[in-house]
Structures are given as structure tokens and as C-alpha cells.
Specification:
single chain; alpha/beta; Nucleotidyltransferase, domain 5; 5-stranded mixed β-sheet; 12 strands
Length: 369
């Protein structure tokens, strides 16, 4: 990443420069410069034009100059009660953010609301360069209904069909991408946050409004064809537990519901809810912290025993009391998975309050390769 920014800065300072000249100016290997330029061209931050034809054999050198457009990725993060739209460039710099309540709307109205908010944000971008919407990435929760269907995911994927994609979320010249919340957050922490040096980890999303998980192996988020990977909210963890939206009792989401309601809101996060039930959280009690860590540790023990990840990355929303949660998780993992399975395992707190939006940027960048 540092070499990429050095190369970009050099191109901005020396318009119509060649790769060889950049390598000489910066003292970098030609292969390093070539890789950085390829990435910048793919992201639309650098344009290349051939030099004038000469009588020499071989391909003419390409002249490089910084693009006159700022290319943006829109992260549309859909929740049951609100939708949040954030604009980032390819380096995750934020150019705008907003949210709208869905409390009075039917589910089918989600994407038109997102489109209107996206238009507002694009109109407010202040830059001497031309803002270009490069890609739209939609993050959805996995909430099974009583029949086991994934209502929100199905809704958004149907709305993003070829027939409606251009009309509802137009402008972007590439197809919209759809991903599960926790998968985006895991990718965001891996590319820009606390997990940058851990290519194999389990990510735990546990905030006021959502719970989920993602598995990252060899730097890639594990995804399934049905998009159920990491949908842990409806795992059965307690006999005769509290009733759940899915019609059963004792699901993880409902068991942890009272505890998650006490998790503080995160400023500038998608977890600032809009429904009346989302009140200001009380400080999570010590007993609640231990119970949360114990429950999550027991849940992840089989995964750690089978996959042996390098780390577990927990939601940044838990940072105010992460020490006690980590201790409880570590003790429970050791008891349920065995000392060998957790030897060397790190439990890390996420660094990004809006990891999903950062993950949308990373997903767009990977899809362009």
C-alpha cells in the first residue's frame, strides 16, 4: 500500500511520466512500480496513454497521469429498521455518509430509499475532480423467517436482478455486489483494520442490532452458494430459552438480546438504530460481560478445534469492555476445545466502527482485479 501511494504521488507531481522513470525517481524495482501502476489503473486513479510512435521495435512506452475523476464505491448497508449509505474511494477514505429510517416503509421500498439517499450524497461531494460512482455494494443481514427463508437477503438479491439493477442503483457501470454484513465487516478489518496481519481468522459481529460471524481463510472470506455462512443468530444454544423471531426458543440472538441491548452505540456506525426499542444502553454489567464471553467461546469452540484459526476478531462495538470478554472467551475455549486448539490463538478487538462500509470498498477492489 505504501509503494502504491508513493507511485501515485510521483505521477501526480510528474504528469506524463513512464514506469521506468518512476522506478528511477523512487529507487524502486521496476516490477514493484508495474504492480502498483496496474492497481492504480484498475481503480481508475491513473490513466495511461501511448507515447508517440517511434521507429524502434517493441511496444511504445505508456505515459501515466493522474485521473481527473475521483472514483467512489457506495456501501448500502441494509438493516431491518434503517438503511445506511456511505461513499468511499478505493483507499477507504470517506466522502459522504447518511441514513434513513425504514420504520414506516414496506420491505420492497428499501432500495428506492437507498437510491434517493445515494443521489443526495453524490450531489454533496465536494472535490475539484469529477465524482464517478464505480460500484455499489449492498450489505444484508441473514434473518431466517419461520419457514427458514432468508427474507432480507432474498429481497435485496431479487431487487438487484438484471431487470431492476440499472434503474434502482444505476450510474455504476459495474454490477452491484451483495454480501452478508459479517462478511463485509471481516473483509474491512482484514484490509484496513485490526486483522491486517492475520490471513486466517474468525470474525464475530455482536452489536446492538445484529449478530453474525465470518470465516477468513488465506485472506479470503468463506462464502457459500446460499449465503448462510456465518449466520449464527439462530443457532440453538439454550433449552427453553426466550422466544425468537424465527418461531423457536433459545436461539443465540434471542438469548443474547438483553445483553446486546446494553452495548453502547457507536458514533458514525450503522448500529445507531432508528426504532423506538433501541434506547440508550446502560453500561454492560460485569456479569453480563462474562456471560457474553462464555456464550461466544462455547459457540466457537468446535470451529477453533476444526479450523485452528490464527485469531478471533470481535466487533469493535465491544471495545469498552473487551478485556473481560476476552478472558471469559479464552477460558471457555480452553475448556471446550482443549488447550492445543487455542494455543497461540489471539482474540483481537476490531479497529473499525463501520467495518462493513470499509469491507464494501475492499470487496469492490477485489472484484475489479
Amino acid at each position: 500500500m505504501r509503494n502504491r501511494e508513493l507511485v501515485l504521488s510521483s505521477i501526480q507531481q510528474h504528469p506524463n511520466v513512464t514506469r521506468s522513470q518512476i522506478a528511477e525517481l523512487l529507487g524502486l524495482p521496476r516490477t514493484t512500480v508495474t504492480a502498483a501502476v496496474a492497481s492504480l489503473v484498475s481503480d481508475g486513479r491513473v490513466e495511461e496513454n501511448p507515447t508517440r510512435p517511434t521507429h524502434r521495435r517493441g511496444r511504445p512506452a505508456m505515459l501515466l497521469r493522474a485521473s481527473e475523476a475521483v472514483r467512489l464505491v457506495a456501501a448500502v448497508i441494509v438493516h431491518r429498521h434503517h438503511v445506511r449509505v456511505t461513499l468511499h474511494d478505493s483507499d477507504a477514505k470517506q466522502w459522504g455518509s447518511g441514513r434513513r429510517s425504514l420504520a414506516q416503509l414496506a420491505e420492497g421500498s428499501v432500495l428506492p430509499v437507498a437510491r434517493a439517499l445515494l443521489d443526495e450524497l453524490l450531489a454533496e461531494v465536494r472535490t475539484p475532480l469529477t465524482p464517478v460512482l464505480e460500484r455499489v455494494v449492498v450489505g444484508v443481514p441473514c434473518f431466517p423467517d419461520p419457514e427458514g427463508q432468508i427474507s432480507m437477503t432474498t429481497l435485496v438479491e431479487e431487487a438487484l436482478s438484471d431487470r431492476t439493477r440499472a434503474g434502482v442503483l444505476g450510474e455504476a457501470h459495474r454490477p452491484a455486489l451483495v454480501a452478508y454484513h459479517a462478511s463485509l465487516a471481516a473483509l474491512g478489518e482484514f484490509e484496513f483494520g485490526a486483522a491486517r496481519r492475520n490471513p486466517e481468522f474468525v470474525y464475530l459481529k455482536c452489536s446492538r442490532n445484529s449478530i453474525g460471524a465470518a470465516v477468513v481463510m488465506n485472506g479470503t472470506v468463506r462464502r457459500s452458494g446460499r449465503e448462510l455462512t456465518g449466520s449464527i443468530a439462530h443457532l440453538h444454544v439454550e433449552e427453553d430459552g426466550p422466544p425468537c423471531l424465527c418461531g423457536r426458543r433459545g436461539c443465540l440472538g434471542s438469548v443474547l438480546g438483553p445483553t446486546r441491548a446494553e452495548i453502547p452505540r457507536q458514533r458514525d456506525s450503522e448500529d445507531v438504530a432508528t426504532d423506538e426499542a433501541d434506547r440508550d444502553g446502560r453500561p454492560l454489567s460485569r456479569r453480563g460481560r462474562r456471560a457474553l464471553g462464555t456464550t461466544l467461546g462455547r459457540l466457537l469452540a468446535p470451529t477453533c478445534a476444526i479450523l485452528e484459526p490464527q485469531a478471533i476478531v470481535i466487533d469493535s462495538a465491544l471495545r469498552p469492555f473487551d478485556d473481560e470478554i476476552r478472558r471469559a472467551m479464552t477460558a471457555t475455549l480452553r475448556d471446550h476445545a482443549g488447550p492445543a486448539a487455542v494455543r497461540g490463538l489471539e482474540i483481537i478487538t476490531g479497529a473499525l466502527p463501520d467495518a462493513e462500509s470499509a469491507g464494501a470498498t475492499a470487496l469492490s477492489r477485489r472484484a475489479a482485479i
